Amino acid sequence: MGLFYQYIVRPVLFTQDPEKSHVTAVKLLRQLSKSKSLCRILGYCNRPIGHNPIDLFGLKFPTAVGLAAGMDKNGQFWRAAEAMGFGHVEIGTVTPLAQNGNPQPRLFRHPEHQAITNKMGFNNDGAEAIARRLKESGAKSKKHLPLGINIGKNKDTHLENALDDYLKCFNNLADYANYFTINISSPNTPGLRLLHETKNLCPLLRGLREININRSKKLGVNTIPMLLKISPDLSFRELDSVIESVLQNSFDGVIATNTTISREGGLRKISQDEGGLSGRPLHEKSITIINYINRVTNGKLPIIGVGGISDPITAGKTCDAGAKLIQIYSGLIYKGPFLAKKLSRALAPRHSKWL
């Protein structure tokens, strides 16, 4: 199936504009999600084999491999992703108000590097619309794989008001989230990465923790696990400050990492105007960050690893660096829709030893 995709399907897709290909894929997956019988059949074919569930954040993940945010921005095909063999799905990034994102073209392929660059700018339908969609699709029942919701601020929201945007997203979507990811690391929303600074980050995390605890007490339910998605472009000193803020505010873990603005090595021909870089070139930066966090926290801060994972070798290296779970996105574009199944089965023996 992988060879069929690489030699037959991918060449056809790559003749099209990248964003148009993405929209076509989303439409097909959305239709698949509507067919429970077809999802059931596909899910059986792609079921985990030899893979014990992974307990993390108080959740059970059927496999270690998840779908990273950015693919299903609007919560349209999480059921299809489950049928394709994913162990969790992260939708978004969701902002309080709908926004169109940055002008097109804003998504670019670099096949020679197995890389993608994007400057999408959090294009999404907005928290209220996405909440309605999740309700209609049965996400509230929680009888499915863990569903993460990645949230951010609107482009026009000033940095000092960023917390308000994250709180609005939380209030609209809390009933449907198995965990929340707080996105402060996209390079495509001006000023967003300034939220890594302690003076901005601590009030943000503290405010989100408080609303989470208050909801828990009011409804008599557990708090919702909260993770912070961080940039790969932080210095170790900056990373130390972020880790300290995460631990002080009792966040449940981090997702490392988002896309990079770096163009090191043989990537200088790729313009920084094309936004954040993902795919193979990001892998070493990502595992460096993961390894550092794992080492300085003695493995006590759970990490979901993202960046350049496209085969069992890169998946294994990410886990060896300290990631408990992994997520993929760019790898799907180059290796095909059933990459999750391949990686899950390759990682199964490794995770069985951890249990």
Folded structure, characterized:
The protein has 355 residues and is of the alpha/beta class. The protein is 42% helix and 15% strand. The protein has twelve helices and 13 strands. The chain has helices at 2-13, 18-34, 36-45, 78-83, 127-136, 162-173, 198-219, 236-248, 283-296, 312-321, 330-335, 339-354, and strands at residues 54-56, 59-61, 65-67, 88-94, 107-110, 115-118, 147-151, 179-183, 226-230, 253-256, 276-279, 303-306, 325-328. The protein has an eight-stranded parallel beta barrel with strand order 3-4-7-8-9-10-12-13, surrounded by four helices. Strands 5-6-11 form a three-stranded antiparallel beta sheet, with no helix packed on it. β12 (303-306), α10 (312-321) and β13 form a beta-alpha-beta unit. α7 packs parallel to α8. The two termini are 31 Å apart. The mean pLDDT is 95.
Please sum up the structure shown:
The protein is α/β, with parallel strands linked by helices.
